[in-house]
Amino acid sequence: MALWRGSAYAGFLALAVGCIFLLEPQLPGSALRSLWSSLQLGPAPAPPGPGSPEGRLAAAWDALIVRPARRWRRVAVGVNACVDVVLSGVKLLQALGLNPGNGKDHTELRSRNDLEEAFIHFMGKGAAAERFFSDKETFHNIAQIASEFPGAQHYVGGNAALIGQKFAANSDLKVMTSISDIPTGIPVHLELASMTNRELMSSIVHQQVFSGVTSLGLNEQELLFLSQSASGPHSSLSSWTGVPDVGVVSDILFWILKEHGKSESRASDLTRIHFHTLAYHILATVDGHWANQLAAVAAGARVAGTQACATETIDTRRVSLKAPREFMTSRSAAGSRVMLNPNEPVVEWHREGVSFHFTPVLVCKDPVRTVGLGDAISAEGLFYSEVHPH
Q1: By C-alpha distance, which of 160, 378, 153 is closest to 282?
Q2: Is 374:194 a contact under the CB 8 Å cutoff?
Q3: Residue 3: which H helix or E strand, with range?
Q4: For residue range 107-159, what is the model confidence (pLDDT) as tens digits?
Q5: Are 170 and 67 in contact, with CB atoms under 8 Å apart?
Q6: Which of 71, 109, 162, 373 has the fewest Cβ atoms within 10 angstroms?
Q7: Which of 114, 251, 269, 375 is the catalytic position?
Q8: Which residues contact 117 (CB under 8 A, 6 or more apart)?
Q9: Of 257, 258, 205, 261, which is closest to residue 228 (Cα–Cα)?
Q10: How many CB atoms lie within 10 A of CB 230?
Q11: C-alpha dihedral over 151, 156, 162, 168, to 10 degrees?
Q12: Annotated catalytic, 315?
């Protein structure tokens, strides 16, 4: 997307890589709560009151979230749109005549059984997954059954379309067909999607994309796969166990910006990364290029709770604080130990010219809709961000 602020230009583009079949079920509250123990998210919280951690955190966010001094004016969105069909994944498997079995990850899906195994594998982890479906006939058959299933809901989908919707209410919107249409000097945001091809991810990091984007949005699966594909820190970690360790995440974000971000000796524009996972968010920025990031990370986390619960504001009765109450800011360097305080929910630290802003998420107990949540988070964080012209 390209965004104009009065006489100044700024830009934003949401891109998606490859053709991906997304099956992210709308889980009932009972099923979501049953995942907490396997995710090691801790015991169920006490009912929130006026002085509950959830209530104090939500009030602190409201005080912290302020509009940037220089706002986005025009937004150009890359062409990437589809229809999201939202329904219970378990009910879809039953409609396909599949019985629960053992979970197994697949780099691509070729059959109904592959779909069933991948679904069970990621449901056990409490994680969403995106996989390419290589058998066209089988894919269309599954998609038709899903679309016609009683109670199935249809929404606009695709990174660019969803992020464009978020900005459309506040900016002039223009659709762009190619990144080459964006004038030189316009900041560009890339929203990553789940991938399984390490060579493709490595080329994105080293050759094709990273040097040409200004801002990056990703989740924990994409972050770890990126590090594994490009021989980054903690790349020997096969997968996350429970809530991603803050210090490990921080190390990888720092490595991306130091090795592939903007510097005096490197022809790169990358200066910002918005990391989002279920329990918390981190904004990492190269010093001197962005402002209002404290408000931006808080706004991104707040919209995660409101959109998942389908409420206008945070309803403290329907959310839980699942972030780690204590964490290290690094696992590979001399990091500091942080104790989370709901009254001051945004934690800031610095490392060799990179600033980090951390905030917990108030996780919806009975989510209404989670499809496209990552796109909404990144769009909200960008909306409250202020880029310094250079």
Answers
A1: 378
A2: no
A3: strand 2-5
A4: 899 999 999 999 999 888 777 778 889 999 999 999 999 999 999 999 888 88
A5: no
A6: 71
A7: 375
A8: 101, 102, 103, 104, 105, 106
A9: 205
A10: 20
A11: -120
A12: no
Q: pLDDT tens, 186-227? A: 888 888 877 778 888 888 787 767 788 899 999 999 999 999
Residue 237, phi then psi, degrees to nearest 5: -70, 120
Alpha-carbon distance 229 to 251, whole Å?
16
Q: What's the rounded Cα separation, in Å, for the pair 297 and 275?
A: 9
Unique residue bearing structure tokens 């594998």? 121
CA–CA gap between residue 206 and residue 355 (Å, rounded):
23
* CB neighbour class for 222 (10 Å; exposed up to 12, middle 13-18, buried from 19): buried
Task: Give the pairing type, strands 326-328 and 337-339.
Answer: antiparallel
Residue type, 25: P
- Give the residue among 28, 131, 14 at the shortest CA–CA distance from 78: 14
Quickly tell me which residue has 């809901």 as its tokens.
153
Mark out the alpha helices in the chain (DSSP H runs).
29-39, 53-64, 89-95, 112-125, 136-147, 159-168, 198-203, 220-229, 246-260, 293-309, 373-383
Tokens read off for 250: 């921080």
Start-to-end CA distance of the chain, whole Å, equals 18
